[in-house]
Amino acid sequence: MPRVCRQVSESGIYHVMLRGNARQLLFESGADKNAFLGMLDAVLERYDLDLLAWCLMDNHVHLVLEDPKGSLSIAMKSLEVRYARRFNGFADRVGHVFQDRFLSKPIDTDAYLLESVRYVHNNSRDIGVDPADYRWSSYAEYVGSATRTNTERVLELIGGPERFPEFCDERVAAGYEVAAFRRADEAAVIRAARELLGLDDLQVIKTLPKSERNHHLVRLREELRLSIRALERLTGIGRGTIYYVLRHSSRKPDNQNRPQ
Question: Which 8-state DSSP code applies to residue 92?
Answer without folding.
Answer: T
